[in-house]
Every structure is written in C-alpha cells, then in structure tokens.
Amino acid sequence: MALEMKVPSPGESITEVEIASWLVADGDYVEKDQAIAEVDSDKATLELPAEASGIITLKAEEGDLVAVGDVVCLIDTDAKKPEGDSKDAKKAEEKKEEAPKKEVEKKAEAPKDDKKTYATGSPSPAAKKILDEKGVAAKDVKGSGRDGRVTKQDAVDATPAMGTPGAGNRGSERTRLSMLRRKVAERLVSAKNETAMLTTFNEVDMSAIFEIRETYKEQFRDKHNVGLGFMSFFTRAVVRALDQYPEVNSMIDGDHMITYEFKDISIAVSGPRGLMVPVIRNAENLSFRGIENEVKRLALRARDGKITVDEMTGGTFTISNGGVFGSMLSTPIINPPQSAILGMHNIVERPIVRDGGIVVAPVMYLALSYDHRIIDGRESVGFLVAIKEALENPVELLMDNDIRRALEL
After folding, report:
1. Following DSSP, what letter does each residue of 277-331 receive, concatenated?
2. pTM, whole model, 2 decimals?
3. Max Cα–Cα distance, the chain, nearest Å
4. Final residue before a domain boundary, out of 76, 93, 109
5. Are 98 and 123 in contact (CB under 8 A)?
6. Domain count within the chain
7. Which of 388, 395, 408, 341 is nearest to 237 (CA)?
C-alpha cells in the first residue's frame, strides 16, 4: 500500500511551503515519525516526520514551492526493512586499502630534473621587503639575477597594476536564501519604508540587579531549576512601562489605532536557521520564575528547530538583546505590525556620577525604536525613562519591597 504524504498546514494564513532539504534519499527505508524533510514557510522552518514506516518515493525537489495539502512523497508501507548491506562495508574497506597505496606511489615519484637551483625564484632580502610591502608573491616574479634569483630591481618593476588581485582565496559561493530568511528581509525593508521609525536612547546603572542576582541566583536555581537572568527584570520593567504608556502597546490598522490590554512580549533569539521571535503570552501575569521558565522553554525550542508558527505570532512589543553578541549600541528595527522594540546591549563598567562622586558601575545602553505615527516623543522618552527607573530601583518598583517573595524563595 502506498501512503500519500501531504504538506500539513504550519499555521493560519500559510498556503505554501518550500522544500528546504530532504533528509532522506529516494528509495530509502524510513521509520514512522522519522524526520524526512525540512520545510520553510514564511514564518519558520519545520521538520516533516514520516507518517508510516516503509520505502519512500520523493515527489518534489529541494527548492520546490508546494501548496499546503499537496503530495510530496509516497511511502510503501508493505515494503520490509532491508537487511544490512555487506557490499557497502566491503567498498569502504577497499577505499581504506587504496588510500595508503596512492600515498606510497606519490612518494615514489622522483622529482623532475629541471636544472633549477635553490636561488631560482628566491628574492634577495631587499627584494623580499619590497614585494611584501606591495603584496606580490615572489613566485609571480621572474628573476633576472644569477640562477633566476629575484633582484631588488625585479621587485621594483613588479608593481601590480591598479586593481590587480592580491594573494589569497578569491572564491565565492552562491546560496539560495530560505523562505524564512526572505520573509524576514521583506518584513525588515517594509518596516523601514512604511513606518516613521525613530530611536531614542538612555543608559541604565545595573548595580542593583547585579547585587540581587549575586545574592539570590544560587537559591533561585536550586528552588526553580532555572537561572535568574536579566530577561525577567527587563520583561517586568517593560510590562510596568506599558501600563503607564499604553500607546507603546498599540498598532496601526488603517485609520485606526488598536491598543491592547494584554502584554504579549516577543523576544528575539538567534537560532540555527536565523532570527526567531517567540512570544511570551500574557507576560503581565508571570512572576520572575514564570518569565525565566518561559524564556528557557522558547529558547530551547528555537535552538532545536521545534518552534511553531503559533509560538511566534501575535506579540504586542519586542525585546531584542544584542548584548549577548557584544553590541554596545544599536538602532533595532520594529517588528511589524508592532509599534516599538526595546534594544538591550552589553554591560560594561563605566564611570558615572552617584551622590556627587565618580564611581565605576556596570552600565547598559538602551535603545527604543518606535513608530512616530502613533507614538510621540513624550511617550517614547517617558516609556524608556520608566524602564530605566524600574531597573535601577527593582526592589521597590518590580518586587514590592520583598525580594524573597518576588523570587518565590
């Protein structure tokens, strides 16, 4: 019996996918639930598992666009699993035996007598210095000295013409972008062209958060089996700021502005297949533990390529942490149709003024990119200042003056 495998729907509004790669070959025996292909939609790359065990016949090529519901392969469920093929093992052994023989043959070949001496093609010290400065290899210069030695004059005359390639590999590779990457590119260009995007900046003294993490991170990990990172502090600070400035938690829909009462926070993470933006749903209802657990769960699913379209759809605000890659400052691009995005950056010890004196403190620069069509300067600056205030005074503004209760210790 030949089972037809059709393209499942990865999510609402998706009508076609691209066969990114086949993980099996035509005629292979596959086991039920074995990953047989990776398919790209405009929102994610997903694995396609075999629906049954049997011999597979491929009906689509890598790079093909196939509609949801189309047949991409057949599985002969009546076929029996083949025994191990001893021929392949024998061929592998033969290759191993041939390799050392070829090496011996190469060593046995006597070098040709071309009547060259050690000086042939060798530059004099002065010539070598000139050639190194010009980026010209000695082997590319014909020596006019005794026995073909490269002289100083040869090096002077060997000046390459303008635009002449230097030494080194000048190869290139042409690779087709995945559907996900193409969609990300399209959305980023759209965000730049269709929004009135501006960015405002501020800085945060992270000393208070450093102190809390240093004191309680071990207890937190032992109690909840998850680390106490920075994301929970930032997420709660964002939720608090969105309550104060609801315009930032809004979107444009034609001639209307839609303002959301809930806070679905998108977090930009880098996965093996590119940028992923999973969503923490109803972040306003989550504790520090709840946020850290959700960040860990979503990050692992993104890293393992198991993130679903539904988990990356519908955020109302985005947090992007370029600091994990060492970024000091950036202007993050809005994730449409959202109206704002917060950019976190690396934490560096810098001199700041505190209580009239100069002290060294861990400082992070923050960036808020926003759509000026619905968010004015007062709201954008006030929103970022509210985040700064919460992060610099987390015990009072984020923990209700009870650290152990907030961390559920």
Report:
1. --EETTGGG--HHHHHHHHHHHHHHHHTT---SGGGS--SEEEEEGGGGT-S---
2. 0.67
3. 88
4. 76
5. no
6. 2
7. 388
DSSP string covering 30-85, please?
A: E-TT-EEEEEE-SS-EEEEE-SS-EEEEE-S-TT-EEETT-EEEEEETTPPPPPP-
In a domain, 364, yes or no: yes
Supply the range of the domain harboring residue 391: 198-406
Q: Is residue 125 part of a domain?
A: no
- CATH code of the domain in which 56 resides: 2.40.50.100
Pair of tokens at residue 155: 């090096």
Residue whose token pair is 């290899």: 137
* Model confidence pLDDT, tens digit, residues 336-393: 889 999 999 999 999 999 889 999 999 999 999 999 999 999 999 999 999 999 999 9
**Domain of residue 207, CATH code:** 3.30.559.10
Q: Catalytic positions, please?
A: 372, 376
How many beta carbons lie within 10 A of that of residue 399, not counting itself?
18
- Whether 183 maps to a domain, the answer reads no
Q: What is the secondary structure of 87-102 as a DSSP string?
A: HHHHHHHHHHHHHHHH
User: Residue 363, Cα to own-chain centre: how many angstroms?
Assistant: 25
Q: Is residue 86 part of a domain?
A: no
Contact 323, 310 (CB under 8 A): no
Give just the sign of the alpha carbon dihedral 221, 223, 226, 232.
negative
Of 28, 49, 76, the one marking the end of a domain is 76
